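Worked example 2:
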Amino acid sequence: MSTALPAPRLVDRFGRVARDLRVSVTDRCNLRCRYCMPAEGLPWMAKPEMLTDDELVRLVGIFVGLGVEQVRLTGGEPLLRRSLTDVVARIAQLQPRPRIAMTTNGVGLVRLAAPLAAAGLDRVNVSLDTVDPVEFADLTRRDRLADVEAGLSAARDAGLVPVKVNAVAMRGINDHSVADLLAWCLERGYELRFIEQMPLDAQHGWDASDMVGGDEVRARLSERFALTPLPATDRGSAPAERFLVDGGPATVGIIASVTAPFCGACDRTRLTADGQVRNCLFSQRETDLRGPMRDGASDDELAALITGEMWRKAKGHGIGTQGFVQPLRPMSAIGG
């Protein structure tokens, strides 16, 4: 009897295999972060455009059947989807069961952390760029820092560990306080990761010359902490370069998506809230699954659309090259 593993289904022309699915469950958000959207917000998707729970779970099940091992729920702000707990419970019942994670701004997490953990959520990442109340209110245009702090604590108490914090350093806004944020996370046992700001804002105002790069973040952290790089072999397809802080065991990560892209090891694909599959954050095209599904397409037919989209994946995102064009959809409509 053969013991050979089945051939990967979500493979692209460069031999990369997608095992990590990012699912946007809504494009709505209750913050207005300056690097993401304008103060007045954006035109939200109409409800009929969005996938229903049944449609979303069906598509995730097809991705799992194609080899996806982790499902990360994103937004917009995923906690704004009222049925989120039920969606998590249904994804957790898929076989083979994928790992289920979520990226959130944390505002509503104090109420939902325990129910989500009970439903099957395994882990959570909370976006938090500063713990200075004035900076937070200026960055997000909302006075909700206390809610985020309470949400992080609730996630830890609910066993959604390791609780990770994602931060973006912005020049002249919060780049001077990156070490303060690390100290705050270390004190509470949260794992901090800094992510370079990417050209995914709705305003299309991103400027590489104004971006705080990973090397600069590391230099600022090193003014206060001793950072020891972990071996690159420990990284795998993970985007973060990780460092022991003051000898460990605590670590901090830096995701240099722009200045040191990890496209060659990328194992991700994405499903938007309106049922489009994207093979890259920066793709200029996407494949519609919602329309064919509502027209009666079979699981096999939908799987063929997914595998075809993955096969077209480009070698890299192309940021910084002459031909790079920022995608029309902002991050809030694609899903992180």
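Residues 1-5 have pLDDT under 50 and may be disordered. The longest strand covers residues 99-104.
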